[in-house]
Amino acid sequence: MCGIVGYIGNRKASEVLIKGLKRLEYRGYDSAGIALCNNNSCQIYKCKGKVQDLEKLLQDKNAEGSIGIGHTRWATHGEPNDVNAHPHTSMRGNFIIIHNGIIENYSKLKAGLEEEGYVFKGETDTEVLANLFEYVYLNHLNNGDKISPEDIIRETLQMVEGAYGLVILCNDYPDFMIAARKGSPLVIGIGKDEYFVASDATPIIEYTNSVIYLNDDDIAIISRSSLNLTNLKNMKKKPDIQKIDLKIDEIEKGGFDHYMLKEIYEQPRAIRDTCRGRLDFRSKSIHLGGLHNIFDKLAGAKRIIIVACGTSWHAGLVGEYLFEEFARIPTEVEYASEFRYRNPIINKDDIVIAISQSGETADTLAAVQMAKNAGAIVIGICNVVGASIPRETIAGVYTHAGPEIGVASTKAFTAQITVLTMMAMAVGLANKGLTEKEFSQLVDELYIIPEKIEEILERSECIRDISEKIKDVSNSIYLGRGYLYPVALEGALKLKEISYIHAEGYPAAEMKHGPIALIDEKMPVIVIATKDNSYDKIVSNIQEVKARKGVIIAVVTEGDVTIKSIADYVIEVPKTDFALAPLLTVIPLQLLSYYIATMRGCNVDQPRNLAKSVTVE
Ligand code: F6R
Fold first, then answer.
1. Nearest CA to ligand 1 atom 7
2. What are the structural domains of the chain?
3. How far is CA 587 from the centre of its chain?
4. Would residue 612 show up in a list of annotated catalytic residues for this protein?
5. Nearest-CA neighbor of 476 among 506, 446, 451?
6. From the CA of 379, how far away is ligand 1's center (Å)?
7. If pLDDT is split at 50, 70 and 90, which confidence band does 377 have?
8. 403 CA distance to ligand 1 centroid (A)?
9. Each residue's pLDDT tens digit, 523-557
10. From CA 502, how far away is CA 487, in angstroms rounded?
């Protein structure tokens, strides 16, 4: 979603900002802009479209200045156009701001400001905030009050309901910028006589690895030579300076055409890293350090509730099968957005697991808060180190997938399933849902999963050929049973989000309760049908589709002859344990979506309307 970058130092700010905004492009956006301050005057350049369009706009301008802020906007209030793009200036020009998040009481605040004579250029909640800062500031000035800009920000933010990650420039105080956070992440990079501010660390890491993650209610006053941290209650805070271990090549394409393809190919490495130091092949054991303090409670849980959104929710569904099978603990999987707004029953013996790649998804974060307030133990499974969800949960396991830049989640999904598998196995062994022999066989099998994924990736040519055959369809159906039903949902999501082909995932047996009416010779049906205990049943489902002339693309276990004789196309994956099959079978589906989308000329890394980290509800 929206991206923030700010710079104060001695470099040419426009270069730092444009480079930073490019690094943030992966988050999804529809307009971009920067403000540059030079010799006590600030210029704003902004436009609808991409950072490239902004660069063109800057070409013949004198874009000088060593202080500046930049933003990529993903429209919420008001359409994507030049006026609604950030930065926003207050009516009399005193404040220039960029903002991530949503000001919920903005219409009430706007009405009040209009009564005071404020006129608005656009429709954004951010412009309301810029004018509110100015209104409060000028009121104090007119009353002769001696008040610092920091106090103005503090006083104004008390009037605001909602979420914000904000960077503010104040024209009367041209030598510093102010950053404030509530619910929308901000990280400050510390250089020598320079500071960087960003919505995540990607624009910062090529300059410094020393960072401070702001907490909710923090306000940072940043000049070239100092950083002063306080909070909304005006309490002084000691900055917690951390070292980040993120390398620049991890956020670059590394010779691949797209981030998504790179990330699909990174999955063997991502799973190995996620298992490293946790899955011990020699001693046949699993150690999850981040769960140490609550492991007994997890093993003794009466119920597990998994909350997540999108692809992470699909990983959660696999988790449900794993926890119920290995650990015999009743498990429910909830869309975080539904969970938070109904009145769910949460008992104190329940364990809530929040799954999120970004760790910033607004609905999942709100579900975490709600579960905490109800007294549940909340565990996080997250990819981004230091994000809000790991900080809000008392225990958790990081996936070590590395930065996921492509908007469509791939390696984060398989890393999440890897963590859930290790958790369910460890709990299963502890509470005797699994015998030692079963556990040890699973350890062996999980250990070699990355090699098996490598084998599938080597066969990508066959998947590309199938993609060529079906790339022009308008609709598709994905079917799976048991562990492979969530894989069907995930395959369908991948296809629709990057190729814009309508795709639906169903449990295969549900097909005859409605969707079968859609089958004709134009309908590709992608069936995930590796050998497991429902194999015969899914073969019957394939027959039902064939009888209605549907086109079958089947993902099957190597050497399968039965399905090969019925299906139009087959993609083989190596044999594995039923419970680990999602880790293999999703790979061809990711590739299928990728190839189809690129053949249709779609922007796979930044699909239309989508954002990487959904920080608004
Ligand atoms: C789909 C996708 C989204 C995310 C969802 C949750 O490819 O990436 O569906 O899975 O927005 O995001 P996280 O995992 O960051 O909470």
1. 408
2. 2-249 (3.60.20.10), 257-447 (3.40.50.10490), 458-604 (3.40.50.10490)
3. 19
4. yes
5. 506
6. 18
7. very high
8. 13
9. 999 999 999 999 999 999 999 999 999 999 999 99
10. 17
